Design the sequence.
């Protein structure tokens, strides 16, 4: 099995499909650099995942919700999915390579945030590969009622397609080498 390595998005957006609170400065979540997109969700005390979904190549949001509870009080990555988790979807290399493929997250306290949407990862998985799993990692933390996201990245695990070897016939005549292949 091969993987793409942890890859950062090329495009970030605030998506109002859910929630009422807007994520400002969304491009701050493209790289891990302690420059955050942050949003105040209420009164203080805790922040948790509301929804974490895959974004499919047709730009629709997948059905499976990977929410994982309360956010930590210090900046750290949280993992959603793994090397064998397909997020209840069927995938082709073309789906993953599409610029619309990505992930969304919405946070909750006393109010819900919009989706923070990460897409355009620039994957180039070979055609015919079998997609084995998708791991999304979101570097986030909460301080009272404020949710902070520093970085979103995705790793895709896949097995390359098997290519059939073309047989060839080799022979030597008068010191010259010839290779004959079927057409």
Sequence:
């Amino acid at each position: 099995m091969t993987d793409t390595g942890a890859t950062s998005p090329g495009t970030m957006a605030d998506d109002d499909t859910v929630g009422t609170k807007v994520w400002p400065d969304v491009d701050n979540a493209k790289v891990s650099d302690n420059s955050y997109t942050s949003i105040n969700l209420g009164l203080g005390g805790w922040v948790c995942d509301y929804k974490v979904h895959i974004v499919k190549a047709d730009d629709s949001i997948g059905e499976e919700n990977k929410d994982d509870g309360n956010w930590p009080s210090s900046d750290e990555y949280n993992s959603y999915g793994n090397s064998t988790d397909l997020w209840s979807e069927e995938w082709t290399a073309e789906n993953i390579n599409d610029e619309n493929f990505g992930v969304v997250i919405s946070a909750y306290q006393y109010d819900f945030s919009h989706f923070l949407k990460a897409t355009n990862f620039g994957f180039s998985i070979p055609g015919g590969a079998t997609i084995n799993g998708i791991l999304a990692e979101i570097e986030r933390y909460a301080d009272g009622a404020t949710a902070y996201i520093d970085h979103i990245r995705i790793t895709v695990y896949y097995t390359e397609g098997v290519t059939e070897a073309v047989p060839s016939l080799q022979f030597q005549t008068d010191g010259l080498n010839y290779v004959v292949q079927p057409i």
Observations:
- Residues 2-180 form one domain.
- The helical segments are 93-97.
